[in-house]
Write a structure and sequence with these properties.
Elements: H1 3-16, H2 23-31, E1 56-57, E2 78-82, H3 88-101, E3 110-112, H4 116-123, E4 133-138, E5 144-157, E6 160-172, H5 181-194, E7 200-205, E8 214-222, H6 225-230, H7 242-249, E9 260-262, H8 268-279, E10 284-287, H9 290-298, H10 303-306, E11 313-319, E12 325-333, E13 336-338, E14 346-347, E15 349-357, H11 369-392, E16 397-401, E17 416-427, E18 429-430
Parallel strand pairs: 6-7, 15-16
Antiparallel strand pairs: 1-18, 2-4, 3-13, 4-5, 5-6, 5-10, 7-17, 8-16, 8-17, 9-11, 11-12, 12-15, 13-14
The structure holds coenzyme A (COA).
EC number: 2.3.1.97
Subunit structure: Monomer.
Main location: cytoplasm
Length: 457
């Protein structure tokens, strides 16, 4: 991929999850010292200048009784609200807030197309609590101006599994930025989670905070180059023609892995077993119980069956000739609405989610040349098929991080590196650094790969 094309494609990235994108900004933030983090320096997180000596909880164990049952005070005309995402009107308030404020898009050309199905999937996983869908409204108008959410997870950090939450969808209205509402939001959701006897959290951000436990890079693989070009995401590199670019990214008509088929309910137990074996190699992992596994990989919205365009999660298995499942992969859909374009109204975006394969399970050392070659070959075949299936599901670009074993297939399958990075953080838990699949020069680390095995939405 040429420098120019790469640059343009990575603009897409800025819209995808992040407010980061900009390397110069990263450098500036990296220069920010611990004392400058007026809020974070008061929180139980690893300090920027700290070298971790021992993994484990930071604050002493408290009990929920020690935590106030009163919400934090809010200044001015603001009030807390608990958002009921099963209520269409309240759900629309969240869409509106996130659509208009979650991503930076100066031209206001693209907006996330959040749907009820997406929130049903991402915010209502087993054990979800309405109390953890926290909003702030203007008292007089009731307009929703900020949001933060948590879902319960069992998180394994190397050998220790801790009951935690994943924090997501933090958003403050653009007109209220820089007013220190974020620390209040974080403290309030912490209070609500602590009241339920949960003391740890996993969260990600494009910005540097004290202190990342891992850093991964975003990558993307064009599936429909001409459309990406037509809507202004990518420009023609000077040395190439349109046809050459289309040819470069054209995928085969059909998938090639024998035995590949959509995952079904009957597969759940077998796939979960394979998945657990595969995930055991990583240092930062979300453990799924039976109900969670079903939720995350088959979805919880029956209606999507009758309306395929609202489908959020796509899961596939490979069943070999003996009827055993040797591989599994999944990706999810979160499209953009395209404004002001007479031809294209929507941009389909697929995100690689979890996968597992038995290709290298027989080897004692996952990093041995034989194990690496076996897994690389298998993953290249599987992920190429994932791209084909994503394309067939009307997705125009397929995104992946450098987490998991992704570094093995990214380059061969033409996933271009983005300029966005995703930092992983643990709240109230110290951990040694975890490899994120990138080298010091930020290129893919095909040797060490990544020990991040968790995928955050
Ligand atoms: C992220 C966002 C909520 C921050 O709001 P803001 O108005 O700039 O920040 P505030 O004045 O309210 O608070 C500043 C504090 O929040 C911290 N902060 C900023 N972004 C943060 C994040 N994503 N996660 C945790 N803390 C964050 C800052 O470091 C600062 O604390 P410090 O003094 O210890 O450094 C806002 O920019 C936003 O809604 N962005 C778009 C959505 C988004 O990117 N969400 C985060 C996804 S990871």
């Amino acid at each position: 991929m040429s420098g120019e094309q790469n640059e343009k494609l990575t603009e897409l990235l800025k819209l995808l999850k992040l407010n980061n994108g900009d390397l110069s900004k990263l450098t500036q933030e990296q220069r920010k010292e611990m004392k400058d983090y007026k809020f974070w320096k008061t929180q139980p997180v690893t300090r920027l200048d700290e070298s971790v000596q021992k993994e484990g909880p930071i604050d002493r164990k408290k009990t929920p009784d020690e935590i106030s049952d009163q919400p934090l005070p809010l200044l001015g005309d603001f009030e807390w609200c608990t958002v009921d995402v099963t209520d269409q009107k309240q759900l629309e308030d969240v869409f509106l807030l996130l659509n208009e404020n979650y991503v930076e898009d100066r031209d206001a050309t693209f907006r996330f197309k959040y749907t009820r199905e997406f929130f049903n999937w991402s915010l209502r996983s087993p054990g979800w609590k309405q109390d953890w869908h926290v909003g702030v409204r203007v008292g007089s108008t009731k307009k929703l101006v900020a949001f933060i959410s948590a879902i319960p997870v069992n998180l394994r950090v190397r050998d220790n599994t801790v009951r935690s939450v994943e924090i997501n969808f933090l958003c403050v209205h653009k007109q209220l930025r820089g007013k220190r509402l974020t620390p209040v939001m974080i403290k309030e959701i912490t209070r609500r989670v602590n009241r339920c006897d949960i003391w740890y959290a996993l969260y990600t951000s494009g910005t540097i905070l004290p202190s990342p436990v891992s850093v991964c890079r975003y990558t993307h693989r064009p599936l429909n180059w001409s459309k990406l070009h037509d809507v202004g995401f990518t420009h023609m590199p000077s040395h190439a023609t349109r046809n050459q670019m289309i040819a470069k990214y054209t995928l085969p008509k059909a998938t090639s892995t024998e035995g590949l088929r959509p995952m079904e309910e009957k597969d759940l137990d077998e796939v979960r077993l394979l998945f657990e074996k595969y995930q055991s190699r990583f240092d930062l992992v979300q453990n799924f119980d039976e109900a969670e596994f079903k939720h995350w990989f088959l979805g919880n919205d029956e209606k999507t069956a009758s309306n395929p365009s609202s489908k959020v999660i796509y899961s596939y298995v490979v069943e070999n000739q003996n009827g055993q499942i040797s591989d599994f992969f999944s990706f999810y859909s979160l499209p953009f609405t395209i404004l002001n374009n007479s031809v294209h109204k929507e941009l389909g975006i697929g995100y690689l989610f979890y996968y597992a394969s038995d290709a290298d399970l027989e080897y004692a050392d996952r990093f041995s040349p034989e194990a690496t070659a076996a897994l690389k070959e298998r993953l290249c075949g599987l992920m190429n098929d994932a791209c084909i299936l994503a394309r067939d599901a009307k997705m125009d670009v397929f995104n992946a991080l450098t987490s998991q074993d992704n570094a093995l297939f990214l380059e061969p399958l033409k996933f271009g590196p983005g300029d966005g990075f995703l930092n992983f953080y643990l709240f109230n838990y110290r951990a040694f650094p975890i490899t994120g699949g990138i080298k010091d020069d930020k290129s893919y680390d095909t040797v060490k790969r990544s020990n991040v095995g968790v995928v955050m939405l």
